[in-house]
Amino acid sequence: MSARTHASLSGRRFEEDDLLDAARTVFHTEGYAAAQIADIARRAGTTKPTLYARLGNKEQIYLSVVLREAEVFRKWVADAYERGSHLPLAELSQIGMEPLFRFAAERAEGFNLLFRGEKTGDMPATLRREVVNSVTEQLTSLIKRRQEAFGSGLGSKADTLAAACVGVALQVCEHTIDHGGDLNAARHLAARFVENAFHNLDVASPTP
Hints:
Elements: H1 3-30, H2 37-44, H3 48-55, H4 58-84, H5 89-106, H6 108-116, H7 123-145, H8 147-150, H9 157-178, H10 183-199
């Protein structure tokens, strides 16, 4: 492949990201119902025919935007859990909270569309549930691998504990955004809450 051809292909990939960035901003600002293909094309500095040819109709563009944000978030979670898989509980709690709060800070539009935004049909809502379930499953697996750090005998409680941790993270993150708070400070608070929950977890079997 010639250098010129390679540069051309790289340019097309970069351009598609630009188109999706423009669409993300328009959907976030206007909402799905009010957003128009013309608005996205104007924001991206291109034409409606080009947008249709590259990304499809409005619903297809919206889904492409949300799917991209979901994949970015999933990758950040996977990377964080891999980095924290052998760390002490306090450090793991901090690293485990990092992807969500970083995503809310660095990709605020994507965060709002994926977790809080307007939906079109059932697909984005289904995708949002899939993302949350995927993170919960990853955390469940990590908890089961780290029984010695989190307490022995968790058994079937591991998935419930993971779901609680993910729920706390989302609630703290959304509350902070709604009240204009400091996401970094909120991340540390959520991590400490989760760490203390692990330390104080009663893993004994309930009394009959």
